[in-house]
Structure prediction request, 169 residues.
Amino acid sequence: MTRRSLPALVTTALAATALLAGCASAPEIAAETAAELQTSVVSVATLAQTDAAAALAELDALQARLDAGTADGSILEDRAAGIRSSIDLVRADLEAAVEAARVAAEQLAAEQAEAARLAQEKAAAEQAVADEAAKQAAEDKAENDKEAREAEKEAEKERREQEKEDREN
Prediction:
């Protein structure tokens, strides 16, 4: 849920709470039904602050209680229509919050995937540099070893020539 949508959710939920606040004394709703609806509205408002999906589920339960109350006559249809309007407003806010959270989660996943891809590319490039350095080091060693052998051969040749020269003298 985005920070920006949280106040709207809470405000809308509180508006629905205010709508139901006088239910217990109103003849359009039975006292027990009004108390159940009021409890559900408070639960929706509380959940909306942290978990829009759970708040939507609670709102569905509230809608079911309202429908049941209308069906059994404990809520008059005129009063139920006003409550439904409030539920619809809250539902729209909650659905928007759920969608925003989904989009944010997808964006985060995409960013993490891109970061992983870039890290993998960087590691591959670093490995290629290390491989090239190792290859160059091996080539340099081989060249140095070759030069050392040639220098030894040249030194041996010079030593033999010197010995030959010393014998002739």
Remarks:
- The chain has a mean pLDDT of 87.
- Residues 5-112 form a domain with the de novo design (two linked rop proteins) fold (CATH 1.20.1440).
- The radius of gyration is 41 Å.
